[in-house]
Design a protein that fits this description.
Elements (H helix, E strand, L loop, with lengths): L1 E6 L5 E7 L2 E4 L8 H7 L10 E3 L4 E2 L9 E5 L3 H7 L8 E5 L4 E2 L5 E3 L6 E2 L2 E7 L15 E9 L1 E2 H4 L15 E8 L11 E6 L2 E7 L7 H11 L7 E3 L21 E5 L5 E8 L2
Parallel strand pairs: 6-17, 8-14, 9-19
Antiparallel strand pairs: 1-2, 1-5, 1-14, 2-3, 3-4, 6-7, 10-13, 11-12, 11-17, 12-14, 15-16, 15-18, 18-19
Amino acid sequence: MRYVSFRRPDGTASFGRIEGETIVELASDAVPSLKAALTDGSLATLTDGASFAAADVVLLPVIPDPAKILCVGLNYAEHVKETGREQKAHPAIFVRYADSLVADGQPMVKPTVTERFDYEGELAVVIGKPCHKVAAADAMAYVAGYSAFNDGSARDWQRHNIQFTPGKTFPGTGGFGPALVTPDEIADLGALHVQTRLNGQVVQDQPVSDMIWDIPTVIAYISAFTPLSPGDVIATGTPGGVGDKRTPPLYMKAGDKVEVDIGTIGTLTHRIIDEA
């Protein structure tokens, strides 16, 4: 199944299931959001409501209100190499905030305080059940599904000190969508490529199988230090090819179009605008 969060034509926030060019609403007073449906385990049993043409609604981030967004840094060897960093024994983890997220089709916002606004196409994992201190062998049972992510980064702010967070969570800089795709829709997750295109030019393209720390390992590591809840999001890291490490550097600017394409999971598309 493919699920989206959206605003109805009257502006009401809702969620539903995609069927071709139609969205079948699943929200109710009892289960008002996709996160709520994951939390109470009702997603697969909800009653169909109204139907909307996809063109008549405005998408929201897949999970508009995740309690936690945890991001994995340096999870592809090519990206580690291009940064000149030493490969560590454990994943690098940093956080984003929910107000940094923007939906598919909505603009990503270049902060006024940087000219080094970089793309980072990534696979996002959405947690479906509470988990804490879960073993890697059991971790996939806690995955609700997958989506695409663009971890837009203000590179100068990222490097003000040794922590990544200041450059990673400006409002409107994190693309997330278009849909939550359940695992049964994906025949071979590792074979899917994370491909990023900037103005039509392919700038990143690596298979998910190239991750240094695979998804079960990442979930086990993160859940060892913090409990994970339904709707929490893990951005699993970006492949090599980031703009900051190109010669000359290649940054996103107002008017650019950036796409993150992960095969059957879908394509996340944004235009870049300047912060007002």
